[in-house]
From TrEMBL:
Record InterPro entries: ABC-2_transporter_component
UniProt source species: Marinicauda salina
Annotated GO CC locations: plasma membrane
Subcellular location: Cell membrane
UniProt KW keywords: Cell membrane, Membrane, Transmembrane, Transmembrane helix
Principal location: membrane
Protein name: ABC transporter permease
Segments crossing the lipid bilayer: 12-36, 56-73, 85-118, 130-149, 161-183, 220-238
Membrane topology category: Multi-pass membrane protein
């Protein structure tokens, strides 16, 4: 685990050595409550809960997580430091995992910045805190899934802007794949079994259960599998570019 921790510390420090982490945290700290208050009508629902916050959380995360992940491998390739990293006595899995957990830590800090909203609804009423805690856990898992996808696509290019666009596009597709209007549009073109399988791949549907406070092993396995698949894809792409420079 030592090589992974070394990469983790290096990557986490790199986030805070540049304005990236601070800009990300400020944007998240403003956008998340903004959606909940002004779009979701948090204080107009008459209920003491954070449903409006988590209603819009997936749409916020599918933009901000690829922005957080876009530099993970693209920057290494652009600066020519990828070969140095791969030549170090660090297994590729440790490098990919360390990078992922560093980005996930920043995402967790961003989610923690919304904790005053949780305190506020407890002050104003008696919310179901277990359900809110489950929703936060679901948001963290969803963020991890998006980060893993973003990391994989960051490994595919040396251009961070392209990595962001690809990551945001992939996360969007993963999110909307289970929405009724998408399934209805595909039902006329694909077999029923294929449409049902596509619905099962929707991150939004999996997050929805956790957002309501329902913990299911199937949902947990889905997000863990999404993270694992993203890390494996990133390692595969990085290994394919080994010795290829930019």
């Amino acid at each position: 685990m030592r090589p992974m921790l070394a990469v983790y510390r290096r990557e986490l420090a790199a986030y805070f050595e540049t304005p990236l982490a601070y800009v990300f945290l400020v944007v998240f700290a403003i956008a998340a409550p903004g959606f909940a208050w002004h779009v979701g009508g948090l204080f107009e629902t008459g209920r003491a809960d954070l449903a409006p916050l988590f209603d819009y959380m997936p749409w916020l995360l599918l933009i901000l997580m690829p922005a957080l992940a876009m530099r993970l491998w693209s920057e290494e390739r652009d600066r020519g430091t990828l070969e140095m990293l791969l030549a170090a006595p660090i297994p590729l899995w440790a490098a990919a995992s360390g990078k992922f957990f560093a980005a996930w830590t920043v995402a967790a800090i961003a989610l923690a910045l919304t904790a005053p909203m949780w305190a506020a609804v407890n002050y104003l009423g008696a919310p179901d805190n277990a359900a809110i805690a489950t929703a936060y856990g679901g948001a963290l898992l969803l963020a991890g899934g998006y980060l893993a996808v973003g990391q994989a696509l960051s490994a595919a290019t040396s251009n961070q802007v392209i990595a962001f666009v690809l990551g945001a596009g992939a996360c969007f597709l993963i999110t909307v794949s289970g929405l009724p209007f998408v399934l209805d549009a595909l039902a006329a073109r694909l077999p029923g079994a294929a449409v049902e399988a596509l619905a099962e791949l929707s991150a939004l549907a999996r997050f929805d259960s956790l957002r309501r406070g329902v913990v299911s092993a199937v949902d947990i396995v889905y997000f863990v599998s999404l993270i694992a698949a993203g890390l494996v894809a990133a390692m595969t792409l990085v290994d394919a570019h080994r010795g290829g420079g930019r």
